[in-house]
Amino acid sequence: MASDKTYDIVVYGASGFTGRLVAEYLAKQYGQSEDLRWAMAGRSAEKLAAVREEIGAPSDTPIVIADASDPESIEMMVASTKVVLTTVGPYQLYGSDLVATCAKAGTDYVDLCGEPPWMRQMIDAHEETAKKSGARIVFSCGFDSIPFDLGVHFLQSAAIEKFGKPMSRVRGRVRKMQGTFSGGTAASLKATMAAAAKDPAILQLLRDPYSLAPGSEVTEQPRGTKPIYDDVIESWCAPFIMAPINTRNVLRTNLLSGFPYGKDFVYDEMFVTGPGEKGEAIANSIANTDSMGKDGGPKPGEGPSKEEREAGFYDVLFVGTDDDKKIQAAVTGDKDPGYGSTSKMIAEAAVCLVKDPLNTGGGIWTSAPAMGDLLIKRLVKNAGLTFDIVN
């Protein structure tokens, strides 16, 4: 990366709910120094200054004015920094010009996107430009999909070390989770469904498990849309709302990395509800609930209290099998997934791109092939995550 940039990281959307949490984390974890120069960006200097004071960021933390409706301001922001960290979604509404500008300028980019059709549009439109400019564009750097993408990477690395080969079948099983999905996630889902209703091509991308891995040899993947009894973990499981984005990112990781998981790799995600009739009843209840589509959840810019964020957590089991071989890994987070943990994960992803000795060229990436073990190390050290091989 060029060394003549004013900032290492610009947090775009820092006056929004999640962006504020990202800025607060950077202020507490890294301060403001020559070692890490970061700025807060958004539409209103007044709001940004108020947030800067409220979160206790250093008073000399720079403020950058940028507005998605003003291309010149976006270009100036992108030109000023090594990495743009954006929480301004839904990305299909507010992110296209930013990705295009970063790809052209050679500026790295991280976001919290869970919108597969838009991501595919960006891949088709800008991947070659990013490869030429050196821009590393990394989508989905929050709860979707870092714990899952890096969890599979971690499991498969251990499998190759133990057995000399990857596991051809991996199950992602969310054992415990407390916390809310973000208002931005809900808004993104609604925007995606609205777009799909108007465009059959978008609907087809939503149905295609390989929509983010064009060119892969297609192996049939579980749909994960109905409750199942999983014999491997001996429990009932319900559909998991984040599976449609996470599974596609994991399959893209396999493609981008040259198929280290194998070309016959099969992966799915489900939510564990327990054994017996009670587990089956809970699984059926979850399957029939449209919590993300309802109007009662948080709106973009809203979110849970600090106490609720602090009380949140998640625990994901990954089970790899291949013939008679089996290996398991667990990934946990110590804050609610949609806000507390997500804000730390995307911040550390941005710092990883700036500070760590990555051998990653330009392109549109997922977290595992872009940052892999170096990001895992940061998340364990700073962000409250654990990655463990378990019995």
Query: Gyration radius, to the nearest Å?
Result: 20 Å
Shape: globular
Distance between the termini: 42 Å
Determine the mean pLDDT.
Answer: 93
As laid out across the biggest beta sheet, the strand order is 3-2-1-4-5-6-13
**What is the helix tally?**
14
Oligomeric state of this protein: single chain
Biggest β-sheet: count, sense, barrel? 7 strands, parallel
Helix-strand topology string: EHEHEHEHHEHEHEHHEEHEHHEEHEHE
Q: Give helix % range.
A: 40-55%
Secondary structure category = alpha/beta
Low-confidence stretches: none
List how many beta strands DSSP finds: 14
Report the portion of residues in β strands. Answer: 15-25%
Q: Which SSEs are present, and which pair or pack?
A:
Layout: E1 7-12, H1 17-30, E2 38-42, H2 45-54, E3 63-65, H3 71-80, E4 81-86, H4 91-94, H5 96-105, E5 108-110, H6 116-133, E6 136-138, H7 146-163, E7 169-178, H8 183-198, H9 200-207, E8 228-230, E9 235-239, H10 243-256, E10 266-274, H11 276-287, H12 306-311, E11 313-322, E12 325-333, H13 337-355, E13 363-365, H14 367-382, E14 385-390
Parallel strand pairs: 1-2, 1-4, 2-3, 4-5, 5-6, 6-13, 7-10
Antiparallel strand pairs: 7-11, 8-9, 9-10, 11-12, 12-14
